[in-house]
Amino acid sequence: MPCWARSRSRAAGVSRDEPAPPPQADRPPAHRGARRRRAGAVPVRAHRRKRRDGRAAVHPPPHRRRRHHRAGGLRGRPRAARAHPALRGDPEGRGDAVRGCGCRDPRASQAGLDAGAPRPRAARPAARRGGGTDERRRAAGARGDQRIPRRRAGLPRRRDGALRQRRARRPGPCAAPGGVRAGAVSLPPEFALIARHFRPLAGEGALDLADDAAVLDIPAGRRLVIAADAMVEGVHYLPDNPPDSVGKKLLRVNLSDLAAMGAAPLGYLMTTTFARGIADDWIAGFVRGLAEDQRAFGLGVLGGDTAATPGPTCLSLTILGTVAPGAVLTRAGAQVGDEIWVSGTIGDGALGLRVLQGSLPGDTGGHLARRYRLPEPRLALGQAIAGLAHAGMDVSDGLVQDLGHLCRAGGCGAEIEAALVPLSLPARALVGADPALLPVVLTGGDDYELLFAAAAGDAAAVLARAAAAGVPVTRIGRFVPGKPEVAVRGLDGTPLALSRGGWSHF
Ligand SMILES: Nc1ncnc2c1ncn2[C@@H]1O[C@H](COP(=O)(O)OP(=O)(O)O)[C@@H](O)[C@H]1O
Ligand SMILES: Cc1ncc(C[n+]2csc(CCOP(=O)(O)OP(=O)(O)O)c2C)c(N)n1
Ligand SMILES: [Mg+2]
How far apart are CA 390 and CA 392, in angstroms? Predict the structure, then answer.
């Protein structure tokens, strides 16, 4: 029997072939409400039909005859009727309400339902089957219950004998707002999705992703740091990017914001709005990437939200971190005369995107594409330079545009030399072959490197701390008096005119 049918009959207390439910006191309130109904009475409208010969037809109730889910994706899915496994204290979160039907229908797994092996069903003694006496019928009617009929009609037919579609049932008087029938505990498939995919990612304080919010302690003597960044399919990542890389990138771009503040990771919240009909495999891959990076960076998910959309997938992550008081790195504080430093190499992500889009050749070894898909959050460096750097941020929109933020926050201008901007070997080769790619490097974004200001006299200390953190850093210019503008000197030493400084969403 499909899972939805099994669940529905249980919620109604119509356990035909299973042991009696646990005592009422052990059950969550929603379950208790369902339990109050007598055997045979369920909050489902009975389908009373006469056979074509006019006599009542005897059929099993509809839910016992269904074998397969009706539709794929996240739509048309079964209504499960048992309490949320979290409410029942199911440690694996795989209670029957969220268990698959066992029919191995790929559409079931697409909906996040576990298509596990069907369970053998034992016959229930006749004495314990739901009654059908007049007295019970009357009592059920008085309570307003709808009853599973003993008699069932055949399929609806037109006069000429052709099958016709049964008209959609209108919500009856017992329907609650939102379509959930009073007395029934329905769980839509996102709960199965959460239990199966996200619960294993739960970190300390997440309360197993089974409560309304997470509760966590901030380590003594630390300050909380919070940032959020979203990624939209087709805007921040390509639809054919491997899903594990999308999960990792989502976490890493947020970790990069913590790095920019000199903070260490604590945990994160995540809101996933999946394109309707997204493959379960995609979500599994996305979660696999998150799981790997959670281990690598030492944090876990604390909660979030799940929705589906007719539009593209939108993933939003809110990251929490901590920092020692006095060691917060902010965008404000750059001073005239400070040197401008950048970590790693610049332009790889932007060039990698163009390689993946097929508009650029030459990424032997896939370095640029990898850098686009998997930025490296510079957490150790951020913490190492905090207290020494005057100001800092991470480069996501483009080096020139983001440097402008440091200028505005510091009340000064900046001058950088393109020739000093550190490039990877593949990027150097591409720009060498086509100097028109230099603006892509300087303004393309997707770098997730740290950009910071430090006093000229502190250069040796910066280099030492960066070396200790294992991250290369390079001086590319200095802050100058004047308007908060960024002047770029091109490879030939002359001013480079750029049509834009970086990425804009609008
Ligand atoms: N929708 C929003 N609601 C509230 N704050 C926002 C919103 N979008 C951006 N911000 C804030 O504006 C600032 C700049 O955002 P952004 O350019 O996205 O920073 P970053 O590059 O570090 O992600 C940040 O402090 C961010 O928290
Ligand atoms: C498919 C695709 N097209 C274009 C880009 C380029 N791009 C999109 S958003 C963005 C800037 C970073 O995203 P944003 O939402 O501004 O992040 P934040 O600055 O808030 O960290 C860049 C460079 C991309 N990463 N992927
Ligand atoms: Mg942002």
Answer: 7
